[in-house]
Amino acid sequence: MRNTIRWALLLLIAGACSSPETKSEQDVLDGSWDAQWDTDPTAFPDVSDASIFTMNGNFTFRDDQVTVTAQGFPGCIFSTDTLSHTLSWQLKNDTLSLINEGDIYGMTYKVLGINEKQIKLQLMDDIFVTLSR
Description:
2 helices, globular, eight-stranded antiparallel beta barrel
């Protein structure tokens, strides 16, 4: 009987002393995010001064799928149309990979920062995407 009480007390103390559960980075991604793509105009010296180097849209992460919607418009350096595409995704270390069906022609973003309110991504050397809630 005494041993049972000791074990119960030890389990209770161990549970009380454990740290609170934190969300994994993959859990943090779940849901919808507003997106803003930005690039530096100096990276495109041959492009007209009338071009716009920012575009809005959103990313929606659900399970192993992400839908990326980019709201292009005339004069936008990224796209003149609104585009929407659903892909698989994978987060490993500081890399977010968006993968087309068949595991080909995806996009790889470097994760510059991630928390529950904002994610900063980099695509290639000169395209930056900020996701926010």
